[in-house]
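Note to self: user wants both folds in one dump. Writing first protein now.
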Amino acid sequence: MSQGTLLYAQSGGVTAVINATASAVITEARARKIKVLAARNGILGALREELVDTSKESAASIAALAHTPGGAFGSCRYKLKSLEADRARYERLLEVLRAHDVRWFLYNGGNDSADTALKVSQLAKEFGYPLTCVGVPKTIDNDLAVTDTCPGFGSAAKYTAVSVREAALDVAAMAETSTRVFIYEAMGRHAGWLAAAAGLAGENPDDAPQVILLPERAYDETAFLKKVKQVVDKVGYCVVVASEGIHTADGRFVADAGGATDSFGHTQLGGVASYLAGRVKAELGYKVHWTLPDYLQRSARHVASKTDWEQAQAVGRAAVQFALKGLNSVMPVIVRTSDAPYRWKIEAAPLSKVANHEKKMPAGFIRKDGFGITDKARGYLQPLIRGEAPLPWGRDGLPKYVTLKNVAVAKKLPDWEG
């Protein structure tokens, strides 16, 4: 039997399939007789020594994680700075890992999480502690470097495309005497992948969404209003999808929710749809409705993509395999090997090439007028939303999700005062 334990933690905003990754991690480790601990609320749980013993969960519960949204062990937005600036916290983390004989650390998150995993591996090496760190990809923003796509994105993209298509049918039915313009706000701070996915809702040039606003292009209000009017004059109504992160030419966010920042230093966004609706109403006089789906985009397991669900599990299994092989400071990434038919595989990529790098929409994916996506973008996006991920439904008409017991491991260290 192998010695040592594996610590798994979830970071940042959760997704419809992050628990599918957790399920795969635990199942793969169990098959190899490796005990898995999970940190409550991500890296904060590790620092506080609030760890969960996943061996107390039944095989059925772990299997049910694969179709349960949210973050089963809790997640957090907590940014560790450089090794120099946050050395006390990193050393505390290493103390916790030592105390529980953790030899493999899997951190499931985005860019900042990849950076943290990389720094923890560097510190462990400095102290001569045998630790293998693996970053596990997750984000609905699809902005991680190296990997072709990020687990979590495909399901959020599917939800977005489905929601926009359905809403557009509603708007089209009422446009003659009611709403002329409908505005949908999609998540995406610097990268417009999720807003771009809404373009899959339409098949022909005049189909909704007729206007997509991406952060990769500076927002020009005059051009935007002119485009909306042209569409309404021609089609009778206009559906707009706007990324929350659209900004003006001088870099100012169109929607800045009070100027507050989170622990990552990110400005809190939200409200771009409301703002745009007000401008359309004031300048064009159309009746406007808008929506801010917010968390619904990332939690909608009922319409999850099968492709995304399968990839979420694949990176979890691979993360365990890579860790047990001693592949340190790597991330399992998705490599596309074919577009038609769609084929992919998992490879190991150095965390140094992932951490703090941001993948934005390529220029070739954005229509020349800046208000839509190209066929090349469709070719990339469409396979990612294919298929329906299995989901058991109860007699009450609701999905059957699982809540874990999350039995705590006894603490061995003094309470953390950080």
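First done. Writing the second protein, which came from a different request thread.
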Amino acid sequence: MTRLSFDPHTFPLDSIAGEAPVSPARLREEWLRTRFANPPEWTPENIIDPRIKTIPERRAAVLMPIVMHPQGPTLLLTLRTSTLRNHAGQISFPGGAAESIDATLTDTALRETEEEIGLSRQYVDVLGALPEYFTATGYRVTPVVGLIHPPFHSQPDPGEVAEIFEVPLTFLMNGMHHQRRLMVLPAGMEQKLVYAMPYERFFIWGATAGMLRNLYHFLRV
């Protein structure tokens, strides 16, 4: 697969999703536990990249770590290094490809999290998983959602992660912060809309923003 070079900050704004924010009451620990234990009927919003001609066979998993601070929950994210083969310099959840040593995709997410940001699985209370998300790089990604209670220790692997940061969950679970941008691709390639959720100096977009949209829908229905 050809590696594309582009700056997502330059993608023109098409529209704002604009749905109402998830109620703060639904972002509390007990409500989150109840929702994952008894999931409702809902429809995932998985925008499949037009470059994907067949369903990817390669499996991967990421951890969506919700940090339960006393002042309110946050989502822990990473800024990938600029030297990686895929998604270099982008915002992502810790995670990666499944390996034969992983008994489940949850194990994949936890192992990759330990490797990428040094967060031991002992700190992660897994709630469940969201539907698979297909990426243009040929992966079918399972997002695993877990709670983390401070204090905890993390240390980025400098070969993969340039920075670890947190974003308030109230910000991410608000449709007014969900932008639709036109992804401008090289001539001859089909254009597409992608989600973006700019926060301070971090530009969250693409598959990460798409999985956040599905978490938003899952919590608000």
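Dump finished. Worth passing along: The chain has a mean pLDDT of 90.
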